[in-house]
Amino acid sequence: MKFDPSDRKFPELQAHQLEELQSEGPVSGVGLRKKLSISQIRTRASRAGTGVRAAPVKITFDGCKPGRVGLGTDGPLMHCCPPMPKGPIVDFVPVRNMSKPLRVRKALQCLEGEELEIYVQKLRKGYALMRALPLDDPRCLEQHRMCHCAHSTGAYTCQGVGVDIHFGWLFYPFHRFFLYFHERILQHLLGDPDFTLHFWNWDNAGQGGCGKPGDIIPPMYADPTQHSTFHHNRHNRTYHPDLVVDLWVDAWNETRLPGGFSKEVTKARNLETMHWAMITLKDAPEGFSGRVYRAGYPRVTPYVGAGTLEVSAHGALHKWVGIDMDDFSFAAGDPLFYPHHENIDRLWDVWRNLSPNNTVPNDPDFLDAEFLFYDENIVLRRMKARHALDMSAFGYEYEDVPNVEWLTQGKGDAGVAPPADEMPQLAEDLSELTLSDGSERTF
Ligand code: C2O
């Protein structure tokens, strides 16, 4: 089926919403994909926020208004705010139930036999149920899509400025919560509190472990006859079951799409990408976590601000799957979004365990950032980033995939990754930023 972007339906905006948006003026960001050295990052990171009354980003229900489709600030307006809560917002702090073993999120490519069969059945049933809910039920798949959209397009505002939880330090905690509630809702719909969504182990080329490569599209999401787990608006390349994913596609300055590389070259590039994202910047944890992002900070140009893994393999996978997955407004409407992000969630933990230097930010504006999600009972829950840090509190862990090839390989042999002393532009070059009201602000 050929995808025509003009087929997308955008709900009509109310007159007052339009006015609100038009009065906003353009937001301009800082230069795209400029690379800084580690010491420049450090200087800018410590300068960041000087003179600003620091406060954490807080997502509030009232702060939601239509956002902008796409990565820029001139895309069509889109309404993706959640339905009104029917009761009070309830704080959520995950607490591990010690009487239960941790549920294990496993590598999809290693499931087999009866376990695989049962899993695929449940997965299909879970998504069929999720899609069958009324559109205004916050638990339906479309509302999951909208929830992600609302956090990515400036729909949620904080101190009057549109929020984007990507391209900065909120990336990991936000997605952990998002996945957690997604999984909880699937468990609820299936009537199976132990149902565990397994991950797409795309960084695993198949050496060691169960010996099967994870770097191709997981077949249970790629069968067009299965409408619950399949999504039409993907790039054609996802129809090739053996095509190795390209973890460097369009990262940095390269725009070449995969298909032009042999399997060997793609695999070598992938290892190099992972090695760079996870290891090369080991003495600069802020390079992994992403830019400092406080209340009132404007959204920035795509890619600026993202940590190493977010800017490379994470973004590349979105592009590789393509079309809806490559658009923040639509990505979470593709069921493949979730196992992709579980791998990111897993790699966050893998990274933290690689070195004692790999610490998350201890700034209160990171730790106290607040998010809102509907739970399986349609109760709106509020949580803080600090409560996302310990995965076991949520009752799950990841299968220990033994073969992390990129630990020892991928040290620049494919000539893809930038040199070790370069990293993405992370800290705000705040003097260059223009706020969403069009005014220049010097920090
Ligand atoms: Cu919220 Cu992979 O994007």
UniProtKB/TrEMBL annotation:
Pfam families given in the database record: PPO1_DWL, Tyrosinase
Lipid biosynthesis among keywords: no
Transmembrane helix in keyword set: no
Residues annotated as domain Tyrosinase copper-binding: 334-345
InterPro entries linked to this entry: Di-copper_centre_dom_sf, Polyphenol_oxidase_cen, Tyrosinase/Hemocyanin, Tyrosinase_Cu-bd
Keywords: Copper, Metal-binding, Oxidoreductase
Cofactor (UniProt): Cu(2+)
PROSITE patterns in the record: TYROSINASE_2
GO MF annotations, alphabetized: catechol oxidase activity; metal ion binding
Record-stated family: Belongs to the tyrosinase family.
Protein name: Tyrosinase copper-binding domain-containing protein
